[in-house]
Amino acid sequence: MKNIWNELPKGFTVLAPMEGVTDVIFRQVVAKAGRPDLFFTEFTNVSSYASEKGRENALERLEVAATDCPIIAQIWGKNPEHFAELAGALEGLGFDGLDINMGCPDRHVNAAGGGAAMIRTPDLAVECYRQAKQATNLPVSIKTRLGYTYLDEFRTWLVTILKEQPVALTVHLRTRKEMSKVPAHYELIPEIAGIRKAFSPETRLVINGDIKDLKQVRELSEKCPQVDGWMIGRGVFENPYCFTEHMPSREELMGLLDYHLRLFDEKDAELRLKRARALGEGRDIEVRGLAFEPLKHYFKIYVSGFPGAAELRARMMECKNTEEVRRVLGCNL
User: Fold this and answer.
1) Does 104 qualify as catalytic in the annotation?
2) Paired residues of 13 in beta bridges
3) How far apart are CA 117 and CA 106, in angstroms?
4) How far are the Cα atoms of 24, 67, 216, 238 from residue 243, in angstroms, in the given order?
5) What is the pLDDT of residue 289?
C-alpha cells in the first residue's frame, strides 16, 4: 500500500488528535473552514475494540467522512495483542495509516498504562508498535512527548522508538509533567532532528505544541527546515480557519456554527435509527442518540470576541438540545 506520509508536501499541516474534539462531525467542520493536509481521529482504545462490549463504541469513534481523507486513526492502550487486532481491522475502514499514542497526559489514560505512561515502559511500547506493524499494511506512526517527568528523557526515549523506524514521529515539545503549563521547547528541535537523522532518517518529523495557524507554520518552516510537518491542536479553538490565512467575520463563524449544528442533528438522527433497528421493531423504548453536553465544548469557537459574546454563550450553555440553541441565537444564524 502507498505511504501517505511520503506524499505530503514539506511543511505539511496536521489537525491534532484531541479527545472529545476531533470526532467525525468536527473534522467536517474544519474541512469546510479550510482543511489541513492530514487529519487524525480522536483516540480509540485498542482494548475497547477487542471486547464485545466496547467494540460498537470503538467503531463509532473510527467513522470516516468523505471529507476526511487522508486520515490517520490514532489508537492507544498497553496490550500488544489488542494493538494487533485493531491494526488489522483499520485497513478495511478507510484509513491511510495508524498512529500509536504514546504521549497523552490524561491521568486516566496514564493509569491504564497508555499514552505518556508508555514512556516509562519502553519495552512494552516497542512491543505494541511491533505487533501493530506486523498486523497491517498501513503505515504506522507514533505521537509522543519529550518525556514523562524530566526534559532530558527525550535523549533516550526518542532513540528507543526511532530505532523501530516508524514512518512518522510527532513530538509534542513538552513532558507529561509539564502538560501545557509551560511554553513548548522549540530550542530542542535541532537536537531532536539530529536524533532522527542518526537513527531513522526516513522517518518524517512532525512538531506539536503552541502552533496556532498557517502563518506560524510557514514562519517555523523557514526557521526549522529539518522539520517535515506541523500539528495544530488548541489553535483550532481560537480560529477554526487556522489552516488558512483567512480571518473569519462574525457572520462566517455563525454560519460555520449552523453547519456544525446541522451535522450534529443528522448524526443524531442516524444513530437513533441505527440503534432502534438493532433493538428491533415494536419495542416502546426511548433510543439514545448523540450526547448533547459535549457539543457545548465547541461554542466558544464560534461565539467569542465580540460585544455580548460571553452573555450569549452563557445562555447557550443552559440549552438542552440544538433546537434550544437555535432559539437563543435567533437572527444570529
Assistant:
1) yes
2) 230
3) 10
4) 18, 15, 10, 12
5) 84
pLDDT along the chain (333 residues), means of 10: 92 95 97 98 95 92 95 97 97 95 95 96 98 97 98 98 98 96 97 98 98 97 97 96 95 96 96 80 67 95 93 96 95 58
Distances (CA, A) of 272 to 111, 132, 265, 281: 33, 33, 11, 13
CB-CB contact of 131 with 81 (8 Å): yes
HEC readout, the chain: CCCHHHHCCCCEEEECCCCCCCCHHHHHHHHHHHCCCEEEEEEEEHHHHHCCCCHHHHHHHCCCCCCCCCEEEEEECCCHHHHHHHHHHHHHHCCCEEEEEECCCCHHHHHCCCHHHHHHCHHHHHHHHHHHHHCCCCCEEEEEEEECCCHHHHHHHHHHHHCCCCCEEEEEEEECCCCCCCCCCHHHHHHHHHHHHHHCCCCEEEEECCCCCHHHHHHHHHHCCCCCEEEECCHHHHCCCCCCCCCCCHHHHHHHHHHHHHHHHHHHHHHHHHHHHHHCCCCCCCCCCCCCHHHHHHHHHHCCCCCCHHHHHHHHHCCCCHHHHHHHHHHHC
Q: Quote the pLDDT of residue 288.
A: 79
Label residue 163 exposed, middle or buried (CB < 10 Å: 0-12, 13-18, 19+): exposed
Query: What's the distance, CA 161 to chain centroid?
Result: 21
Cβ atoms of residues 259 and 30 within 8 Å: no
- Predicted pLDDT at 284: 52
Whole-number pLDDT of residue 187? 97
pTM: 0.94
- Which of 69, 104, 128, 331 is an active site residue? 104
For 65, the grid coordinates are 467522512
